[in-house]
Amino acid sequence: MALERKTSDSLIRAVAEEANISNKPIRVLAVDDEQFNLEILVKHLKKAGFETIEAKNGEEAWEYLQKNPAGVDIILMDKMMPGINGVELTKKIKKDQKLKHIAVIMQTASVGTQAIVEGIEAGAYYYLTKPYAAEVLISIVAAAARDYRQQSAVADKAFEKKQILALIKKSEFEYKTIQDARSLAIYLASFCRDPARFAIGLAGLLVNAVEHGNLGIGYQKKLELLGERKLEEEIERRMKMPEFRDKKVTVKMLKEPEVVTINIIDEGNGFDPSPYLDFDPSRLTDPNGRGIAMARIMEGTSLQYVGKGNELICTIKTI
C-alpha cells in the first residue's frame, strides 16, 4: 500500500509540474454538495500544488464568483447538485463577461453522449467520471490549466492587434513545430467572435496536424506517451528523423464578411477522422482526443476532411 501511494504521489507531482503549476499556482474552485467528496477533491488538488477554494453547492459557488470574479481560474463541480446544478452554473458563468474565462470541469456518473454534449455546449470542456483515480483527476485539471493559459494568452494579445486584423483578408502560413502551431492558433482565433474560446479548438486542430499528421503519432500511441510522460521526448526524437524533419503544415486563411475559412494541410499519410468527430464516452477521461469533436460542436463552426484525411477545411461564422 505504501509503495502504491508513493507511486501515485509521484505521478501527481509529475503531471502538476508539466502544467507549470509550481511556478504560478492555478486557482481551482471545487464544488460538491457531499462533504466527503469535497474533502477528497481538495486533498488531491492541494497535494498537486493548486490553490483551492471550496463551495458546498452551486449557490455558494456563484456567490463567491460574483464577489471574486478574478479569483478563480478553473471550476471543478458535480453535474448533479441540489439548487443550481452543474450545467446551469456553467451557463451562468459563460454568460458573464467577468467569468467566461474560467475553465469548467464537470464531475458526473453519467457518460452518455447526449449528457456530454449538453455540458460541452454549456461551456464545460472536460469531464471527470466517478469514481476516479487521483492521477486522472490531476491529469484532467492540468489539461484544463494549459487551456486556461492558452485563453489568457489570447486575451492579452487580441486587443493589441485589433486594428491591423481588420485590414487582413487572406493569409498563408507554414509551420513545423508544436509551439508554432499554438502560436498560430492564437493569431487565427483573433478573427473569431470569441477568440479565447476558439483558440482551444484551433490549437487542437493545428497540433494534430503535426503530431498525428506529419509525425505519425496516432491516438493510442499519444495516450501511451502521455501516461509515460514521454510525449515531448518522442516528438523531439521524431522531428530529427529524416522521414519527418522536413515535413510542414500549410495553413490558408480567407476572411469574408460573415465567415473565416481555415484550410489545414499536413504532409502525413492521412487518417480516418470519423471516430473522432463526435464525443465517445469510452474516451471521456483521456487527456487527449477531444480536439476535433470540441471544435466541431462549437457554435457556428463546421469541419470537413477531404482527400485522404490530411486536409481539413474549418469554417467559422464571425457574426
How would you sum up this structure, described in words?
The chain has 12 helices and 10 strands. By secondary structure, it is α/β, with parallel strands linked by helices. The protein has 2 domains: 2-149, Rossmann fold (3-Layer(aba) Sandwich); 168-317, Heat Shock Protein 90, CATH 3.30.565. The protein starts with a helix and ends with a strand.
Question: What characteristics describe this protein?
Answer:
319 residues, alpha/beta, Rossmann fold, Heat Shock Protein 90, 2 domains, five-stranded parallel β-sheet, five-stranded antiparallel β-sheet, 12 helices, disordered N terminus
Brief sketch in words of this structure:
The chain has helices spanning 2-18, 35-47, 58-67, 86-95, 113-122, 134-158, 162-165, 178-189, 195-214, 219-228, 231-239, 291-297; strands at 27-31, 51-55, 74-78, 103-108, 124-129, 170-175, 249-255, 259-265, 301-306, 311-317. With 319 residues, it is of the alpha/beta class. Helix 6 crosses helix 8 (178-189).
Task: Present the secondary structure layout.
Layout (H helix, E strand, L loop, with lengths): L1 H17 L8 E5 L3 H13 L3 E5 L2 H10 L6 E5 L7 H10 L7 E6 L4 H10 L1 E6 L4 H25 L3 H4 L4 E6 L2 H12 L5 H20 L4 H10 L2 H9 L9 E7 L3 E7 L25 H7 L3 E6 L4 E7 L2
Parallel strand pairs: 1-2, 1-3, 3-4, 4-5
Antiparallel strand pairs: 6-7, 7-8, 8-10, 9-10
